[in-house]
Write a structure and sequence with these properties.
Blueprint lengths: L1 H22 L4 H20 L4
Helix pairs in contact: 1-2
């Protein structure tokens, strides 16, 4: 069951990160903001123990 949670969390982070980057990728600054948001999501999931 732990593996399922891990894979689900990775998929969610990847999808949300992709959507955020795609949504704000109008210029380089927005891409940087998108990567920061994805990194914060990844950090949050590791802090709560999912990753």
């Amino acid at each position: 069951m732990e593996d399922l949670k891990y894979y689900l969390a990775v998929v969610i982070v990847a999808v949300v990160g992709f959507l955020v980057i795609k949504k704000v990728s109008g210029c380089i600054w927005n891409m940087i903001v998108g990567f920061v948001v994805a990194a914060v999501l990844w950090w949050a999931l590791t802090e709560i123990g999912i990753l």
